[in-house]
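Give me the fold.
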Amino acid sequence: MTNGITNLTQDTKSEAVAELRDLDWPACMNARDLGGLPTAETGRVRGRALIRSDRLSRLTDDGVEAVRRLRPSRIIDLRTSTQCEREPSPFAAADMYCHVPLSFPSDPPNRQARLVDRYRSKLDLYPNRFAQAVAAAADAPPGSVVVHCQAGKDRTGLVIALILKAVGVPDDAIAVDYAVSAARLGAYYTAKRADIEDAELLELVRELHSARADTMASTLTYLRDECGGVEPYLRRGGLVERQLEALRERLVVWSQNSSVQAHV
């Protein structure tokens, strides 16, 4: 891991990374810029090129204005149709808005106790949908791309991991960024668990609310072992080489310019 955080603990790494990239979007809890993350061959993710967030329906008027100031060229909403109807995005009528649901009422029930196993099952079930979400980022007009779901942790975490890995971000950097959501959503999830009295159910919900670096690291290992890596997985879902190249072009800035461009 680079960026001067190699010797920190995992939790402290996550906080150090996030503090550099937090976005002040009033009423959103989990919005951050992926700019500055390292890629292979001394590159970095370009600042303000890729943003992850929880649901934008939370935004106050000031928050909506903060997003508009970013001038995103695409907002990719990964929520279900029901979630979108119940809490509409303030950008739903805009050309930049793109709805790519990753869950459906017809999905088989998933009662797996470990979050990592649920991630693996979802990836196995919907390679085409995940490829479609990544393609929406690759094919976006010039400008920032925002990816979000409901809490900005699970569906967003998987899509962001696929995008970052496709442009050469190492596993540990992806896992550290994923774990940032634990701190950002901690108080929110604690409140949601407050009325659960059944000990077994509480343990399960705590696991599903978690965002540990090892969960994402294991997910990436699974894709490498079972699919040959992220790129073959995305190709299986329909992503083409032109789109992979477009992702690298829009997201990666090389070392000679990274100090200037990483957080513009």
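The radius of gyration is 17 Å.
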